[in-house]
Input
Amino acid sequence: MDNVTIGKFKGFTTFDLKIIGIVLMFIDHIHQMFVPMGVPNWLDWFGRPVATLFFFVSVIGFSHTRSKEKYMLRLYLGMVLMTLGSFFLQKIVGYEEVQLMNNIFRDLLVGTLMMYGIDKISEGRASKKIGKILFGIAIILFPIVSSGILLSLMSNPSTIMVAVWGANFIPALLFAENSVMVLLIPLMYLAKNQRWLQCLMIALVAVLFFFQGSTQWMMIFAVIPIMLFNGEKGRGMKNFFYVFYPLHIWILYLISAYMFTH
Output
């Protein structure tokens, strides 16, 4: 990692946090894709802090990006291409033992929309423009309201397919991979200048999962690299994750399918 030197540790950069998340995610997805081959369940533990790490990194990225609109557009395109790519890959391969439900782009987009809404409310308050405040509130509520609409459509047999396909293109909170846990993104954004408060939020959510008996409580280990974050960007890898994320999932899926059928 670029900021770790022998004998002297200078903390983690944004680049380092991304690499930690990618490595842990890769191990987790090995578990997901090779469950039919009997891989041990403890491999899944490595992935529990991953979403939290990426949520934190998205707060940092959104806070410093030059164009927040372009940032959201990249996530939206990533979400749609990931969804369609996984759908057609499963149709072509026909390997039903593993379902490709992964799409962290949706989680990050929902969280980013809410951060964007928070910004608009702040701008409206500063300029005393009620229109901007209302626009910001609408943006924040959109992923929540769209979730309710899609769930309502899914309860009706005549509109269920419309809702299923609509969910592929609409950033809805309850259809995100991590569901309501995505709310950590706007909450951490509100506390972006108070690292201790961000980590406290993570710890409280982890405690809730612990009492539910879910291994997701292990997300609390994300606090360690987050506390060691030094505020520096590190090496640039702007588009690497957008390519690596879907590609490694699809490759692991194809390897799993081949191993299972041969």
